[in-house]
Amino acid sequence: MTRVVDAPRRLVFEAWTHPEHPPHWMLGPEGWTMPVCEIDYRSGGAWHFVWRRSDGSEMGMRGVYQEIVPPERIVSTESWGGDWPETLNTLLLSEEDGKTTITSRVRYPSKEARDAALKTGMKEGASASFDRLEEYLRTMA
To answer: What's the pTM value of the predicted model, to 2 decimals?
Structure first.
């Protein structure tokens, strides 16, 4: 997934890595909140997010940071639990003329696992989160 936002890279990096920020933007479709956002931001540190829908249902994911190169690269594992396989996620941030290109890559263990994830509405949820991120970055500036 790639998105260009009108904000400096340092601000995008902060929005991604400080636990007070993701609950404002990393929410997917309308109607979700993030009551749990734990980030131990260091190589080998863990992260844990829980989303809650307006009907009270929840979903969570967690992972471990593998590589951190501020403010340009974050590599971490991601696990939704259950039958979902663990993925390796790479976030790349590059800046040009005050705008940041966000590139998020998710490596699945198989094409079938990737296709199953895409059928969940992941693309639409990620797109909504990126839209919200761009709005939120304006409040951080």
So the answer is: 0.93
For residue 21, give both structure tokens. Answer: 């920020």
- Copy the structure tokens of residue 133: 């991120």
**How far is the C-alpha of 96 from the C-alpha of 101, rounded, in Å?**
8
Region at 98 (left for phi over 0; alpha for psi -120 to 50; beta for the rest): left
58-69 in b/e form (b: 16+ CB < 10 A) is eeeebbbbeebe
Task: Note the pLDDT tens digit of each residue in 73-111.
Answer: 999 999 998 888 999 999 999 999 999 999 999 999 999
Contact present, 59 and 51 (Cβ < 8 Å)? yes
As a 3-state breakdown, the chain gives helix, strand, coil percent values, each rounded to 5, of 30, 40, 30
